[in-house]
Amino acid sequence: MSGKIRYEKILNKAQLFAVTALDGPILVIAGAGSGKTRTLAYRVAWLVERGVPPKEILLLTFTRKAAKEMLDRAARLTNRRCREVSGGTFHSLAQRVLREKAERIGFSRSFTIMDRSDMEEAARGLISEVDGERMPMRFPKSSTISNIFSKAVNMETHLSEVMEIEYPQFLPILQHIERMLQVYKEYKRRNNLMDYDDLILFFRLLLKENEDIRLLLANRYRYIMVDEYQDTNTIQADIIRYLGSSHKNVMVVGDDSQSIYSFRGANFRNMFDFPVYFPEAKIIKLEENYRSTQPILTMTNALMDQASQKYTKCLFTRRSGSEVPLTIGTGTERDQAVYVCRTIEALLDEGRSLKDIAVLFRAAYHSFELELELARRAIPFAKYGGFKFMESAHIKDLLAHLRVIINKQDILSWGRLLRLMKNIGPRKSQAIIDWMKKEDVLPAGVDKWPGGNKEKEGLVELAKLMSALSKANLRPDKAVGLAAEYYTPFLRERFDDFPRRQLELEQLISMASRYRSLRAFLDDLSLEPPASPVDVRPLGKEDYLTLSTIHSAKGLEWGIIFIIWLVDGRFPPEKSFLNTESLEEELRLLYVAATRAKDKLIMVYPGQGALYNSEGWGGNYRGGPSSFIRALPQDVIEHRSFASSYISPGDTTLSSGLFAESMGPPAGDSSGLKPGDRINHPAFGMGVVARFQGEDRVEVIFKDWGTKLLHLGYTSLEKV
User: Fold this and answer.
1) Alpha-carbon gap, residue 472 to 691, rounded angstroms
2) What mean pLDDT do residues 207-227 have?
3) I want to staple 207 with a disulfide (CB 3.0 to 4.6 A). Which of 242, 273, 546, 690 is the partner?
4) Residue 702 CB partners (closer than 8 Å, separation 6+)
């Protein structure tokens, strides 16, 4: 090989094959941690060294930053001219071409590109054209309208399908939203405007209908490379097909096992369709992993064996390390939080850094209990994906109604809850607060305010709630439930995504059930790490624990990973069981989470207790570990259990008590049952086997009766 770089000394065999492949289509299946970015950067360097003019190379990524970093890396490797490669996003390429050829699709070249805020502003101005019609409910906010329109474009589906998944509450006015879409399209065309989604939509149309433009671009970009191909949608895949249709010098790099963005329109089948559209394609698998230890890779390989549609790959590494991934069954959700915190403290005692540890979860609200426990223990953390629990507007709103019961002079909470009502703004709310303070009015007397009439009905309803919340010996969970019931109409009015926020309020009820007094519950929610470093470990300014949703953690890595809430109903969520495609995406999501770990992987689930749902306690998650975990071969993971009541306060080492018992593989007994099996009991109905105690006792979580310990000699369990 000619050139400065000795590729054969630097790259492994699969990477070398991909980097130095000759002309023609190439599909690179890059497993997690296998050097995907490195391969693309060296590919650019190799092409430039080989004499390909940089401007004839096109590198498409999902962010301009990613493209720039790759090209800078290639330039440092061999030649500054690598920075002249045409790098960017699908949308930036579309914009450049449409500026030249806009008249072909009925626009002038001076069209304006609308960003998301422009899109929302336009929608806000156009709502009046359809909002005046008689409707059974209010029209969605402009941000929701924009989101529905954008997803329908990227997923190439009807508005109704997007709404059924994300905004089913607005289906009764589907016809009005469809009318709104037509008005919006006419508005853009009339004013020579394109939104962000139009760029790739019209770019594809331009390529499809104009052979001369396809040939022009094929001559301009003789070598095309695409990063993260598994995250492309159908529109983007079509664009690549058209751009490479004549010369076929197209290299796409991706991992079908890490396709987790279907909600944004990403279609993992693009990975499988590429060899269909380019039958001559070479398929190269990058399977050597540079991140994780072999036991972690062995588990993640086994995890993806469960997928029905995949490119089979077997990740391996030369890294040392023999710790098998752990699955920890905790007693309750609180035990889960305590276990994670105590294990983190033990790891810090062993010399680990907080920066090297992350806790990952399926949805932002899954970390609420953990956030409170971290605050109690003064462990600093940063959260990515969603808001911190106490920063969420709807959580603050709800708690304001409870805080004024404990402290009737809490003017901040009074102001917040009063301003929720119609006809009460900042000035009037302050007048009510001043009156209550001057007259020493109890919360239940707020409706006696003499200052107005329009807000009277709202104040009467508020007074009823305050009266109910003021009753002696009211359980905290009952108090939160009453406040949530009162607040629900405001939630529905204020937030278009209220179903998700409703789940978070239900989580608050679940948390309150563990307290004996409302004051103790509210005090714990308000806990913050102390300002003074007394009794706090000496941490550097940048040393903090990472909490993150899995989607926000993609592409990152940590030495130690905790994955929490691994129970059916939470991860995977209940709705994913409705179809195979959704369930397989959840499987890939767990794969992404697990492959973030370099040295240690710990998967945690609460095995007891029930979740609160809109119909009361119980039933919306299945006991035992996630079905994904139960399906793994037992030699790739180690099962243990933990309950905080087992641990004495002085126990802080991994070896002396954090794990109360080693469960071993979840085995069954002579009855033929095993943990995770669904059963039917003649008295208690449907349930799930949680664990065995000895040879003759079994713990079962029943949908309507909670957890029961049954003696197999005196009960009849029918496996379902």
Assistant:
1) 39
2) 94
3) 242
4) 618, 681, 684, 685, 686, 687, 708
> How far is the C-alpha of 332 from the C-alpha of 608, rounded, in Å?
5
DSSP 578: G
- Compute the distance between CA of residue 210 and CA of residue 204 in angstroms, rounded to an integer: 10
39, 253 contact by CB (below 8 A): yes
Asked whether 554 and 258 are in contact (CB, 8 A), the reply is yes
Query: How many CB atoms lie under 10 A from the CB of residue 310?
Result: 19
Residue pointed to by tokens 């009361």: 616
Q: What is the DSSP string of 631-651?
A: TS-TTS-EEEEE-GGGS-TT-
Contact between 177 and 162 (Cβ < 8 Å): no
For the stretch 268-292, pLDDT in tens is 999 999 999 999 999 999 999 999 9
Q: How many CB atoms lie within 10 A of CB 292?
A: 28
pLDDT tens per residue, range 100-112: 999 999 998 888 8
Spatial distance between the Cα atoms of 246 and 105, rounded to a whole number of angstroms: 23
Query: Residue 7's beta-bridge partner residues?
Result: none
CA dihedral defined by 524, 528, 529, 532, rounded to 10 degrees?
Answer: -120
- CA 29 from centroid of its chain's CA atoms: 24
Q: Could you tell me where the beta strands, DSSP code E, fall in 16-114?
A: 26-30, 57-61, 86-89, 112-114
The answer to whether residue 529 scores a pLDDT higher than 50 is no
Sequence-distant (6+) residues with CB within 8 A of 436 are: 408, 414, 445, 446, 449
Q: Which residues of 250-285 are buried (b: 16+ CB within 10 A; e: fewer)?
A: bbbbbbbbbbbbbeebbbbbbbeebeebbeebbebb
Tell me how far apart the alpha carbons of residues 675 and 204 are, in angstroms, rounded to a whole number.
51
What H or E segment, with its residue span, contains residue 13? helix 13-19
For residues 117 and 147, give the distance between their C-alpha atoms in angstroms, rounded to a whole number.
11
- What is the distance between the alpha carbons of residues 195 and 153, in angstroms, rounded to a whole number? 11
Q: What is the pTM of this model?
A: 0.75
CA distance 191 to 163: 28
Question: Tokens 């972690």 label which residue?
Answer: 296
User: DSSP label at 438?
Assistant: H
Coil vs helix vs strand at 554: coil
Dist. CA 258–CA 590, nearest whole Å:
9
Q: Helix 142-154 crosses helix 196-209 at what angle (to 10 degrees)?
A: 30
Cis peptide before 279, with omega less than 30 degrees from 0? Answer: no
